[in-house]
Write a structure and sequence with these properties.
The protein is mostly helical. It is built from five helices and no strands. The longest helix is centred in the N-terminal third of the chain and has 25 residues.
Length: about 130
Protein backbone atom coordinates (compact mmCIF):
# COMPACT_ATOMS: atom_id res chain seq x y z
CA UNK A 1 0.00 0.00 0.00
CA UNK A 2 2.89 2.35 0.79
CA UNK A 3 4.36 1.78 -2.71
CA UNK A 4 1.04 2.68 -4.33
CA UNK A 5 0.85 5.95 -2.35
CA UNK A 6 4.41 6.83 -3.35
CA UNK A 7 3.64 6.03 -6.99
CA UNK A 8 0.44 8.11 -6.90
CA UNK A 9 2.25 11.07 -5.35
CA UNK A 10 5.07 10.83 -7.91
CA UNK A 11 2.56 10.56 -10.75
CA UNK A 12 0.61 13.59 -9.52
CA UNK A 13 3.82 15.60 -9.30
CA UNK A 14 4.82 14.66 -12.86
CA UNK A 15 1.36 15.61 -14.16
CA UNK A 16 1.50 19.01 -12.40
CA UNK A 17 5.00 19.70 -13.74
CA UNK A 18 3.96 18.84 -17.30
CA UNK A 19 0.79 20.93 -16.97
CA UNK A 20 2.80 23.97 -15.84
CA UNK A 21 5.40 23.41 -18.56
CA UNK A 22 2.72 23.44 -21.26
CA UNK A 23 1.39 26.80 -20.07
CA UNK A 24 4.93 28.21 -19.93
CA UNK A 25 5.63 27.06 -23.49
CA UNK A 26 2.32 28.57 -24.64
CA UNK A 27 3.56 32.03 -23.55
CA UNK A 28 5.75 32.13 -26.66
CA UNK A 29 2.77 31.65 -28.99
CA UNK A 30 0.72 34.42 -30.60
CA UNK A 31 -2.10 35.60 -28.29
CA UNK A 32 -4.97 33.94 -30.15
CA UNK A 33 -3.14 30.60 -30.33
CA UNK A 34 -2.11 30.88 -26.70
CA UNK A 35 -5.72 31.27 -25.59
CA UNK A 36 -6.75 28.34 -27.75
CA UNK A 37 -3.87 26.18 -26.50
CA UNK A 38 -4.43 27.07 -22.85
CA UNK A 39 -8.14 26.30 -23.02
CA UNK A 40 -7.56 23.04 -24.89
CA UNK A 41 -4.84 21.84 -22.51
CA UNK A 42 -6.92 22.75 -19.45
CA UNK A 43 -9.93 20.80 -20.76
CA UNK A 44 -7.86 17.78 -21.80
CA UNK A 45 -6.16 17.51 -18.43
CA UNK A 46 -9.55 17.76 -16.68
CA UNK A 47 -11.02 15.16 -19.01
CA UNK A 48 -8.23 12.69 -18.29
CA UNK A 49 -8.01 13.27 -14.55
CA UNK A 50 -9.51 9.88 -13.69
CA UNK A 51 -8.40 7.79 -16.67
CA UNK A 52 -6.92 4.31 -16.30
CA UNK A 53 -3.13 3.84 -16.00
CA UNK A 54 -2.68 2.75 -19.63
CA UNK A 55 -4.52 5.84 -20.94
CA UNK A 56 -2.59 8.02 -18.48
CA UNK A 57 0.71 6.72 -19.80
CA UNK A 58 -0.26 7.47 -23.41
CA UNK A 59 -1.70 10.85 -22.44
CA UNK A 60 1.44 11.95 -20.60
CA UNK A 61 3.71 10.68 -23.36
CA UNK A 62 1.82 12.58 -26.08
CA UNK A 63 1.57 15.81 -24.08
CA UNK A 64 5.28 15.60 -23.22
CA UNK A 65 6.11 15.24 -26.92
CA UNK A 66 3.84 18.21 -27.65
CA UNK A 67 5.58 20.38 -25.07
CA UNK A 68 9.04 19.45 -26.36
CA UNK A 69 8.15 20.05 -30.02
CA UNK A 70 6.44 23.35 -29.26
CA UNK A 71 9.36 24.52 -27.12
CA UNK A 72 11.72 23.81 -30.02
CA UNK A 73 9.43 25.57 -32.52
CA UNK A 74 9.08 28.70 -30.39
CA UNK A 75 12.81 29.22 -29.90
CA UNK A 76 13.78 32.54 -31.48
CA UNK A 77 16.39 30.95 -33.76
CA UNK A 78 13.84 28.47 -35.16
CA UNK A 79 11.29 31.22 -35.67
CA UNK A 80 13.84 33.39 -37.47
CA UNK A 81 14.73 30.56 -39.86
CA UNK A 82 11.49 28.67 -40.47
CA UNK A 83 8.64 30.81 -39.12
CA UNK A 84 6.53 27.71 -38.58
CA UNK A 85 4.46 26.62 -35.64
CA UNK A 86 2.75 23.26 -35.41
CA UNK A 87 2.81 20.11 -37.46
CA UNK A 88 0.49 18.57 -40.02
CA UNK A 89 -1.54 15.63 -38.80
CA UNK A 90 -0.88 12.35 -40.59
CA UNK A 91 -4.24 11.33 -42.15
CA UNK A 92 -3.56 7.69 -41.20
CA UNK A 93 -4.01 8.66 -37.54
CA UNK A 94 -7.67 9.46 -38.22
CA UNK A 95 -8.37 5.74 -38.71
CA UNK A 96 -7.44 5.11 -35.08
CA UNK A 97 -9.50 7.93 -33.55
CA UNK A 98 -12.80 7.42 -31.81
CA UNK A 99 -15.90 9.32 -32.94
CA UNK A 100 -15.52 11.59 -29.92
CA UNK A 101 -11.92 12.38 -30.86
CA UNK A 102 -12.91 13.13 -34.45
CA UNK A 103 -15.62 15.54 -33.27
CA UNK A 104 -13.11 17.19 -30.96
CA UNK A 105 -10.59 17.50 -33.79
CA UNK A 106 -13.24 19.06 -36.01
CA UNK A 107 -14.15 21.56 -33.28
CA UNK A 108 -10.48 22.40 -32.89
CA UNK A 109 -10.20 22.91 -36.65
CA UNK A 110 -13.20 25.24 -36.61
CA UNK A 111 -11.74 27.23 -33.71
CA UNK A 112 -8.37 27.65 -35.39
CA UNK A 113 -9.96 28.59 -38.70
CA UNK A 114 -12.11 31.29 -37.09
CA UNK A 115 -11.73 34.59 -38.91
CA UNK A 116 -12.09 36.95 -36.00
CA UNK A 117 -10.18 39.84 -34.51
CA UNK A 118 -11.46 38.92 -31.05
CA UNK A 119 -9.30 36.07 -29.65
CA UNK A 120 -11.82 35.63 -26.83
CA UNK A 121 -14.19 34.07 -29.34
CA UNK A 122 -11.80 31.15 -29.70
CA UNK A 123 -12.87 28.64 -27.09
CA UNK A 124 -12.32 24.91 -26.91
CA UNK A 125 -14.51 23.18 -24.37
CA UNK A 126 -15.52 19.68 -23.47
CA UNK A 127 -18.13 18.67 -26.04
CA UNK A 128 -19.52 15.93 -23.80
CA UNK A 129 -21.72 18.33 -21.90
CA UNK A 130 -25.42 18.78 -22.60
CA UNK A 131 -25.29 22.26 -24.10
CA UNK A 132 -24.86 21.17 -27.71
Amino acid sequence: MKFFKMFAADHALRVRMLYKLIFRVHRAMPAELRILGDNYAREEFKRHKNCNPQEASIFLHEWTNYAIKLAKQTKPLHQAKKKTLGKYLDPKILDYMTDEQLVQLYELHKATSLQSDDPKQINVTNKNNNDR
